[in-house]
Design goal:
The protein is of the alpha/beta class and 258 residues long. Helix content is 45%, strand content 15%.
């Protein structure tokens, strides 16, 4: 088998949290194109169903939608049970759901801090834990967590202390899980995207004034496209990355190099 054929994901069952739009949708598209069956997991069921239908029609793969609040451990476990029941198993998970609040630290309320914490770190833990428990009992698998270049630098000019701190936590969580499960067949890695030109970012009134400044600061002079995260995620979800665990892959156009 050649390298291209070995990168395919035929026979894999994968869930993608935050999969209805943006980075999640783009990576889910690549998973389906590579031959995987999918669960689009999102708190927005209508949008998840729309994405699932689109991918099923374009790829011919089985794609389901599952509504889940990743901050609720009961819902997360029910999601994994639904995914493994309807798809027949689980070989990979993309724990991608996240939010960002641009609030100055001195003005951030406890509720705002907890909101970012609950989604960006606790949510990643809960979904990775539930996926890992299933994989440990069923021969192994691969978990991919979405961190951020904000785990490596402090973004300017927008204030986002909670996002930065908790994305850094995702990387350390990833390494910790990778070590715990390394000899038991479950690999855990993270990706750290730079500024990505998702629909939500490009259409956000609060972020639009910052885009020109970000591009001026960026070594490549532009934001990344969600599709530019597809290949690394397909690699990590598949068997060709069998010796890759505990790693963080920065995909930021060299933004964090200075």
């Amino acid at each position: 088998m050649g390298i291209i054929e070995s990168m395919r994901l035929d026979g894999k069952r994968i869930f993608v949290t935050g999969g209805a739009r943006g980075i999640g949708k783009s990576v889910a598209t690549a998973f389906a194109e590579a031959g995987a069956d999918l669960a689009i997991v999102d708190v927005d069921l209508a949008e998840a169903q729309k994405t699932a239908m689109e991918l099923a029609q374009s790829s011919g793969r089985k794609v389901i939608a599952v509504q889940t609040d990743v901050t609720d451990p009961v819902q997360v476990q029910e999601m994994v049970d639904t995914v493994t029941g309807e798809l027949g198993g689980l070989e990979a998970a993309f724990c991608n759901a996240g939010i960002c609040l641009n609030v100055p630290a001195e003005e951030m309320s406890y509720e705002q801090w907890r909101k970012v914490l609950d989604v960006n770190l606790t949510g990643v833990f809960l979904t990775a834990q539930a996926a890992g428990k299933y994989m440990l009992a069923h021969g192994g698998g691969s978990i991919i967590n979405t961190a951020s270049m904000s785990a490596h630098i402090v973004n300017v000019p927008q204030p986002q202390c909670a996002y930065n701190a908790l994305k850094a936590g995702v990387i350390q969580l990833t390494k910790s899980l990778a070590i715990e499960w390394a000899k038991r067949g479950v690999r855990v890695n993270s990706i750290s995207p730079g500024y990505m030109a998702t629909g939500l970012t490009m259409n956000s009134p609060s972020l639009q004034p910052l885009i020109a400044q970000w591009n001026e600061m960026a070594p490549m002079g532009r934001m990344g496209q969600p599709k530019e995260l597809q290949s690394i995620c397909v690699y990590l979800a598949g068997d060709t990355s069998s010796f890759t665990t505990g790693a963080d892959f920065v995909v930021d156009g060299a933004f964090t190099c200075f």
